[in-house]
Each structure stands twice: as C-alpha cells, then as structure tokens.
Amino acid sequence: MFPNPKSLKMPPLTCTKLALIAITGVIIQIIGLSLFVFGFFPVKPALPGISGSESYHLPVCDLVGNQSGTTLPSDQLRSLYQELSGMPPLFDRLILMVIDGLPAEFVLGKNGKPPSKQFKEAMPYTQSLLASGLAIGYHAKAAPPTVTMPRLKAMVSGAIGGFLDVAFNFNTQAMLDDNLLGQFFRIGWKMVMLGDETWLKLFPGLFKRHDGVSSFYVKDTVQVDQNVSRHLGDELSRDDWNLLILHYLGLDHVGHIGGRSSVLMVPKLKEMDDMVKLIHSSTTLSQGNDQGRMLLMIVSDHGMTENGNHGGSSYEETDSLALFIGLRNHVLDYASVIQQIDIAPTLALLFGVPIPKNNVGVLIKEAFDSLKEEQHLRALELNSWQLLGLLQAQLSGLPCRNFPCDAFSDHQIAGTSECYHRTEDMLCCLYMEAAALYSSWKSKRGTESASNKDYSSTAAAYYKFLKSASEWLSRRSTDKPVKLLAVGLATMFISCVILSSLMFCRVREIYLGRRQQSLNDSMNGWSLDDTFILGVILILVTSMGSSSMVEEEHYIWYFVTSTFYLLLLRKTAQSFSSVGVKSGEGYFGMCFTFLLLISGRILRGWHQGGVNWTSLPDISKCLEQAGSHYVKLLQLVSAFLVISIGVFALFSIQFKQKYFQMVRLSFLTSGLLVLLHITRYQDYTFSSTNYGATLLAQIVYAILGAATIGTVVALPWFFPFPTFNSCPTDNTLSPPSFFHGIQEKFPFVELRDSLYVIGWAYILCWCLLQLLLQQPINSTPILLLLVQILASMLYFASNGTHHKEWIEIAVVFNFFKAG
C-alpha cells in the first residue's frame, strides 16, 4: 500500500524559485567545467614580446641602453645582431624541406640497426650522403600531440604546445609568439613557401611567393606533391630568396591510406629522394656563386603508427626526422637522438638571429663543431642565458638574480660543487658552475695554462645545465594543476546535486499529485529496457575512469548494443500474445531485430580495433589475403546498395516542387560520381590517384555540400505549414508504406516531412563522403551502419510495443558508437 499522497504533499515550488535554482545550478556547472578545462588543458607559460639585442646579455643584468633594437632597419639590425653575438652566421640561405609524417626509422633505422632493405634502397642518394658524412641525421623526438600545426610551431619557436593545439590544427590561427620566421623577416630575409597551407595560416604576409595546398583530401598522394615540385626548378635558379620552405604531404597521405606497409610507400620515398638529389646537386653547384652559403635541412613533423595514424605519444608517432645537409664537418660518430624543439635554437644561431624568447630547446652539438672554441662556447652561453630568462620568469625563488654581470672569479667554482635538493638551487648551481668554468677558460685563453680539457669541461658543464633546464621547462609546460582540477570536479558535483535535487522534487510533485492508480501504473511501467539503458549510462561513466577501458571502449559498446537488441527481441516475442498488437507488426519487429543483431556481429568482426587486439585475425585481413578483386567486388556492391537505399528514400517522396526535384537530382548525381570515382580511380592500393581523381572528388564535395546545406536551410520554407485551426486532409508527402510508420509518429505533417528529408540528406551525405574517403575495405561497414540506422528507425516505427522516445534516441546513439 502506498501512503496517502495528501499527507506527503509539500508546498510546490513556484516558477520563480524553480527558475532561480535551475539557473544557479547551470552557472555553477559552467564555472566548474571552466575550472576543469583550464586545469586539464593548461595554457603554457610564455614570455611576452620578441627576442632582440637584449638576448645577447645576461638576463639579470639591467644594462643602460639595453634596448631590443627591433625597430631598426633590417640591415642595421642584422649587423647589430652579428656584432653582439660574437660569432658570424655560418649560412646565408636555408632550404627547409618538410616531409609530412616521415618516421626517422625509415631513413636512420632503429635501436642502432639500419633501416629495412626496401626503405634503404628507396632513398639511395640520401643514404649515400649519410654514409659519407655529408649529412647528419637525428631521431628528433616530437612532443605530443603529434599533429602538423603544433609540431611546426615547435620547430620554429622551440616551445612545446598543448593539447588545445589539436583543436586549433583544424582552424589554424596566425602565430603571435616569437619564432624563427619572424626573426628572419625582421632582418630582411625574403621567404618562399611551397606546400601545406598551414604555413600560410601561421605566418600570413611573410612570404614573398607561395603556393599552398590543402591536406584535407587524404587520398591525393600525387597532386599535393606535384604542386610543390613543379616550382622547384625555377626557385632553385633564383637568388631573390633566403628561405625556401617545401612541405610535402604525399607521404603522410600514403600512410593514412595504407599504413607503413602500403605499396605506395616505397615509390613515395623514391620520389622524395629524387627531390633531395635535385636540391643538393643544385645547391652544390651554386656554392661558388654569389648566392651565399646554403644549408639544406630535411625534417618531418611527426611519425606514424603501423596503420598510418598519428596524434598520440607512442614511439612510432613521435619518431620524427631532422637531417642536416651542408654542415661541412663530415661527422660520422654522434648521438643520434635529439628533441624536436632543439631545431629552433640551433637554426637561430647558425643564421645569426636571436633565439626565440620561449624556446626550451638545446643547441645540437654537431651543428657547431666547425666553429672555433670561443665561438662554440659563446653559442652555449647565449642558449644558457635564454633558458635562464625563462627560469627566472617561472621560478620566483631562483637565487640566480644576484649573479655578477662581469666575469666570474676562480673562487666561485668551489662554491658550486654542492647542489641542494631544491630545483631552484640545483639549476642555479649548474649554471654557476658552467659560467665560472667559462670565465676561467677565457682568462686562460692564449696562455700556456690553457688546454683542450678546459674547453671540453666548460662545454660539458654548459650542456649539463642546458639539458636539465630544458627538461624542467618542458615538464612545466605540460604540468596539470591538481588543485584546480579537484576544485572544478567538486564544483560540477555540487551543480549535479542541485539539479538532481530539483528534478527529484519536481518529479515527486508530479507523481504525488496523481491518483493512487496512476502512481501504481507509473511504478509498474518501469520496464527492463528502461532499467538497462540507465545501467548502461552508469557503466559508461564508471569506465571512463580507466585508461584501459577508454582504449577498448568499443568492446563496451558491442556488448551494450547486442544485449539491448536481445532485450528488444524478447519484448517483441512477448508482444505476439498481447492484446491489440498486430501479428504483422510483431513479425516485422522480429525481422528488424535479427537484422540489427546480424549486421552488428559482422561489424564487430570486420576489424580488430583497440590497442591490444589489432594483430588478431578478422574479416578485413582475410579479404585482403584472399585478393584485391574480392575487396573491389564488395566495395562496388556496398557502394551501389548505399546509393540505392538513400536515393530510394528520397525518390519515394511524392513532392513535386522544383526545388525538391533539384535536391533529389543533386544526391543522385553525387552518388553516381562516387560510383564513377570508385570504378575508375580507386583500386586496392590507390596507385592510380591523379589529378582527375582529385578533381572528381572536389566536384563531389561541392555538389554534396551545396545539396545538404541547401536542404537544411531552404527546404523547410517550401512546406506550407498549416494553422492551428486547420488540419490538412492529406499529406504533402505520400511515402510508401515502407516508410509510412516512421512519419506517422510525428503529429505535424509538414514539419515531420521536412525533418524526414533533412535527416536523409544528412545520412546520405555522410555515407557518400565515407565511400569517397575511406579505404576500399571499409565500404561494407559503411553499408552495415546505414542498414542499422534504417532497421532501428523501422523497428521503432512499425513495432506495436511502446518505447519511450528517450529510449529510442539512446538506442540509435549506442549502435552508432559501436559502429
């Protein structure tokens, strides 16, 4: 027995109180979420401004007239930098060749072993330069996130970006921090860029000439590189530039299409080797001319996994390349691992500009081996001063602020032999030791007491400080404030408690206001599928606390969707004996449920995803081993069925407005063009990718984009909405009975029909784009996903059993996540 509702009834909440409490809870939630986001994605500490002439002085010294000098004319500024640096620039011109996604392992090998035979033979000219000592190659470890934009920023600024840069990678903004290109521009350099348009977005207005290409269409492995190489011969013959940037995207696209083992990988490496040969031969012949000393540097922004992906922190993804050609010191034995951020300070001092202000990188030793001893130590001193300035900005208790601005005395060396446990004391101790040794070396220079051992000890002390400071600053830029995260989580929890309490009170008022029988019916109406969906939500929230569960999240979705459809099958079977449920509807529900279970099982076995099980056999691997003709056949059948289902859904609507006829024709044309692209340009290896394939893909993009946007924006205006005093006697659209159940569930006919068309436009656009972009082996999963969407819609529309709307939405969301 339930208690008397009147005895439990509490004073109801007024609308004003309800609104105030709800708004308060939402505001608290926003505050908590903001605190958590700022803590989880910390903004890296950065010094404002740009480096100028002050970077050639110890940062603790406040010298009179120590101005940045960046407002001087470019010629005077270049002369000022050269005078203050105490070391002449080693080069006058730079060719920066970026091979997007090239793992250093392909060129340098791994763990002391040479690269595999096929990769070594693919780049014979580059390998000959390495073998003869004309080139020096490094595994340049990239910091995550390993995507293009933050990696380019790291190479030109020496700073480590955050994970928010992943979002900015899709909408690149101009780089405002101090960087090499800005320094080069201020001393009057003329710069040319060919390749990835990311450079143009990061550095607008800096390039004298440019030809940018987009990296969006990843199936293009030919045209994106030809757009770069077609200008190369002309640019190499010119003498009106100081910096030439060549950013090749084709190798990264090859990786996205077929992974490291793609049959296109070796030909693409040969193409890159030919470009290296062309550039090096041209620059070697021009060294005797008046064009100046030239350095060719070949880098990659990141590596790639076996499947060709990148963005994470695995060794394969962070293993980028840094190759110097033209240093003239013929080094054969050297440490082969550096940090990618080390490129920025090295290039800055090689070309006579200040090190970018927020750089945390360290000079690459072998790049300065050709310098005299005093010049090499001066370069290390400048790098140390720059890092010391960053340490002073981030460590308020740094005891280095009282350093003398003149030379260190010999007795100070003894005082630096013991370092304390505090980070500030340790870093200051290391710097003081290096500075004291340098002061001692300068005092002995030119005397009989000077020795090579003193020089080596001083250089080693500087490198010890530089590496320690760089490691600490790198960790500092990615540290997450735990207190801020905890406060954010606590604030969001308080908001959830407020809103949940409000909801509980409101629901209690509604239920207790009903009659006893209504309350009993409500309690008994809580079905098994409702309970299961709520349980799934709790399971998913709990699983997000484990990194292993996140990595294998798709297995949770597989289990959830399969289990839920078994519950639906059970409910449908029970409905056969229910009163008022048509047997035809029950049979249709059974068929749709079996279709969902079968398609879901095939999808689950198509690919072994996740982290731990990718090596296990699956359907896609079996098809690939069976031969490409099986994959091609499945691709054609899947594409034809996807296009047929989508076009049938649109053409089944009897709406004779000319605009709607154009929409149907646009999607039909797009489908036929996608089918043409598959038959003519797509084979198992994509080796036939050319300009025609790219042009056809661009046409499909344009038609689909215009049709989808036009459908969403304009189509609702073509449906005559009725007034509330009138009811239409017939539907504007008269779909066949196959889709009639879907549309009958919506009370407003015209709005219902408009949303029906818009929904199919979204679905068909997504399917056609996936058929265009995905690998051929993934065409069948696209068809199966479409089948699951359609079967779920038809099940809930035709089945006589009642389901709450939120259950239907949750089901579609769940199986889409599983797919």
TrEMBL record:
Pfam families: Phosphodiest, PIGO_PIGG. GO terms for biological process: GPI anchor biosynthetic process. It is found in: Endoplasmic reticulum membrane. InterPro entries: Alkaline_phosphatase_core_sf, Phosphodiest/P_Trfase, PIG-G_N, PIGG/GPI7, PIGG/GPI7_C. Keywords: Endoplasmic reticulum, Glycoprotein, GPI-anchor biosynthesis, Membrane, Transferase, Transmembrane, Transmembrane helix. GO terms for molecular function: CP2 mannose-ethanolamine phosphotransferase activity. The chain crosses the membrane at residues 20-41, 484-505, 526-549, 555-573, 585-603, 633-655, 662-679, 699-719, 755-773, 779-797. Its main location: endoplasmic reticulum. Residues 531-657 form the GPI ethanolamine phosphate transferase 2 C-terminal domain. Pathway: Glycolipid biosynthesis; glycosylphosphatidylinositol-anchor biosynthesis. SUPFAM superfamilies: Alkaline phosphatase-like. The keyword rRNA processing does not apply. Belongs to the PIGG/PIGN/PIGO family. PIGG subfamily. This is GPI ethanolamine phosphate transferase 2 isoform X6. It comes from Durio zibethinus (Durian).
